[in-house]
Amino acid sequence: MDMDELVLARYIEAVRAEGRHTSWDYHSRASLAHRYVAMTVPKVACTTIKMALQTWEGCGPEPDRWGDVHAGGAGPTLLAYPTAQIVEMLRSPAYLRFSFVRNPYGRLVSAWKSKLARDDPQYDQLRASIREACDYPFANGQRAGPIAFRDAVECLLDNPAAFDDHWNRQVDLLVADVIDYHIVGRFERFGQDFPAILRRLRAPAEVIDVASQVYNPTRPMALAAVYDPALARRVYGHYLADFETFGYRQDSWRLE
Question: First and final CA of the chain: distance in angstroms?
Fold first, then answer.
């Protein structure tokens, strides 16, 4: 290994020892046979990407059990391989490294609709804390009512310790300072670009067909329906690295 590869190997070993960096394990999919490394981002078509790739690897769940793609050990992740192999995957031009990103304004709305506006039991405590912080009314002895987008965003940004990967910055999830991607596509063109990536990798037709399916959708909503200039400024400030790195406009909440 050259010096760059040795530094990367030490980094990977540190990540492996800590056991807490979900990007390297939970969010990644990597294949020796088909020569790719994919990093998925929550609320950026991550279920569709995993379903297609795991179908190709022979470990995809049945379509009506699509949620199983997110289970621990559901697919071949980067950390499933020896460190020297990971270094090759992340440095060799023989492996196609790709991911997709999304307008941070839209991704935040999608996470709210999926995890907080619905009664997802994993987020019961977070919803309860938002209702308490925002003085929601009581019903049957406890605070109740649907979680408003503004309340969710302001409470989360006031307390980043409550974040999980649905709210974390995309630059951090992509480990963009370590992984040299060939393609970072946009969610807004996902329907065209993901099949093109699969064709470049010579995936079979049945895998490309899976890539055309939409799993875990949320209803489209005009961003201007939930943002105003003050809220947009706050979100822009927090996710500035995403906006600048991936080329999304500060005023794009008015346009989508």
Answer: 47
